[in-house]
Amino acid sequence: MATAFVPLEGVRVVDVTSSLAGPYCTEILGALGADVVKVEHPERGDEARAWGTPFFQGSSVMFYAANLNKRSLALDLKRGGDVLLRLVDSADVFLQSLRPGTAARLGFGPGELRERNPGLVYCDIGAFGRAGPLRERPGYDPLLQAFAGIMSVTGEPDRPGVRVGASIVDQGTGMWAALGILAALHAGGGHTVDVSLFETGVGLLPYQLTAYLGGGGVPGRHGTAFPLIAPYQVFRTLDGEVMIAAGNDGLFERLCIALDLGALASDPRFATNPDRVSRREELAELIGKRIEGERQADVLGRLEQAGVPAAPVNDVGQVADHEQTAELGLIQPMPEPSSPPPRLGEHTVEILEELGYSAGEIADFAAEHVIRRVESAG
After folding, report:
1. Which domains does the chain have, with CATH numbers?
2. Are 141 and 174 in contact (CB under 8 A)?
3. Residues annotated catalytic, as ranges
C-alpha cells in the first residue's frame, strides 16, 4: 500500500479564519499533512457551521466540505489572547481573516507575532486588499463576483447577471493563499502572504480585461458561449444538452461532416473563426436545428467518432456517480482514523495541555468562558 504524501508533516498552522476562503486554504494544508488548529469563537464558532440546510452528520455541508483534517480550539480572542500567543509561539503558519484592523488591534498583527516567532509565515486574507479606498470593507464571494465584474459576463444576453454556481472567488483565494504559504515555507519562513477576494476575482478575468484595455469595449454576457470562439457553446438535443467545442477550423469541418452539415464547412460566411464569431447566432441556430430532434447519446457518439470535443451537461449527481470520478478517486470514504470536521471546541483541552496549561488553569478558563471544552467523541 502506497504511503501517504505528507510534505507538511510537522508543520503547525494556526487558523483564525471563517466562512470559506481561509478554511479552504487550511484544508489543503491539512491534506498535505499540516497540523491545523482551527481557532473559533467559543459560543458560535465558525459562522459557516450554521449555513444550511442541508446539513451532513451535524455540520453544514459547506463547513463539512472545507474543514477536514483540523482540530478545533474554542477560544475567545479578546479574553484569551495570551493563549493564542503561546500557540503561535509553536506555530509555523498563522492565518487570519478578521475584519480589517482587528488583528492588529488585538495584538495579532504580523509585526507583533514575528517579534515572538521570527520564522512565522503570516497570511492575511481580506476582501478588497490592503490598499485603496475600499481596504476596510468586508466581503463575501457573491459580493466580489459582482464587484470584480464576474457577474457582468455571466448569464444570458439582455438578462440580469447571475452568480457562478461554485464559490470560485472564495476557493480561488484559498488556493492562492495555500500557494503563497507553501512558497513562503520553502523560502524559510518569516514572510507575509497577503491575498484578497477582489484580487482573485479580477485575476479570473484575464482575457476580458485584455480585450477591454485593448480597445475591444466592455465585454458582455454570452450564456454558455465563449466570446472568442464559435461554435463553442451548449446545444439542446431531444433529451439533454451537449457542450460542443470546435476550437479551430479543422474541428469545425469535422463537426459539420459529423452532423451532415458539410455545406457549412465550405460556406464563406463561416470560413474562419473570426467569421464564425461575427455570425455566432446564425451558426448556432443552424447547428441547433440540426440536433434538437436527436438523442443526446447519439449526438455525442457521432462527435466522439469524428474527434470533435464535446461533453454532456451533467448534473452533480451524474458527476458523483460517473465511473471517471470513481477511477480518479475523487470521492472517497473517510480514512481511518476518521478526520471529519471537528465539533466546536472538540480539541480545546488537548491543545491547551500541549501548550503546558495545567488542569486547574484549563478549568479556570472554562469557568470564565474564555474557552469551550467538549469531550472528544469516542
Report:
1. 12-204+333-372 (3.40.50.10540), 232-313 (3.30.1540.10)
2. no
3. 170
